[in-house]
Amino acid sequence: MSEIICIHCGEDCGKYPVVWDDKPFCCEGCKTVYQILNENKLGGYYNIYENPGIKVDLQDFGGKYAYLDKEEIKEKLVYFTEGEYSKTKLYIPDIHCSSCIWLLENLYMLNTSITQSMVNFVKKEVDITFKNTEISLREIVELLASIHYIPMINLQSITGEKNKSENKKLIYKLGIAGFVFGNTMLLSMPEYIPGEVSAEFR
Predict the structure, then answer these.
(1) Are 87 and 171 found together in one domain?
(2) 159 falls within a domain
(3) Which range marks the domain in which residue 195 is found?
(4) Which of 64-68, 102-106, 152-156, 194-198 has the lowest mean pLDDT?
């Protein structure tokens, strides 16, 4: 018996595939992403590459991304705001083909509050312009996660500038400590030189 391939990600569906619209899926997650894309007329995603998607673990986000509602976090991730428009740049490691680029640059079709999205394939980043009065940073990240393009947001990306400042302070302190230690050793050298040493070196 030949294996049944998931329409979305290309994984083996096993003996009991999840079926929707007469199409097989390996799990509910892949089926959900397929439904989202087709309901929003983004089925062209599957025309560029066969099985371009990534296997999805269906989950309820709950409060997972609630921290993105904090002003101090948003200030670090939103690099431009003028009036009702803001821009954010997110690193998405799962960008891997032209289908990914096509989908991520058509985010406005999933939510009209996103006015533009541009992908830097080499850096695996997507630059998103959005109406901040209609959609929040948290909602953008949840939208991306719902189609399994999960942004990698870590402490370093949020506190990068602070870390750089702290590193400079540490280097400065080490420099002073090294200077003091060096001078102390220099002044102590006459004590370790055999024989008599003239007073001018003491």
Answers:
(1) no
(2) no
(3) 165-201
(4) 194-198
Q: Which residues of 120-149 are buried (b: 16+ CB within 10 A; e: fewer)?
A: eeeebbbbbebebeebbbbbbbebbbbbbb
pLDDT exceeds 90 at position 123:
yes
Of 58, 81, 102, the one marking the end of a domain is: 58
Residue with tokens 């894309």: 37
pLDDT tens across 92-114, in order? 998 887 878 888 998 998 899 99
Q: Residues with Cβ < 8 Å from 159, sequence gap 6 or more? A: 76
Mark whether 65 and 138 lie in a shared domain: yes
Phi then psi for 18, rounded to 5 degrees? -85, 125
Tokens 């992403």 locate to 33
* Residue 129, domain member (yes or no): yes
Angle between helix 28-39 and 137-146 (nearest 10): 110
Compute φ and ψ for 189, nearest 5 degrees: -55, -45
pLDDT tier, 146 (very low <50, low <70, confident <90, very high otherwise): confident
The total of structural domains in the chain comes to 3
Instruction: Provide, rounded to the nearest whole percent, the portion of the chain with pLDDT above 90.
Output: 38
Q: How far apart are CA 7 and CA 52, in angstroms?
A: 9
Identify which of 4, 61, 3 has the alpha carbon closest to the alpha carbon of residue 32: 61
Domain termination site, one of 43, 58, 73: 58
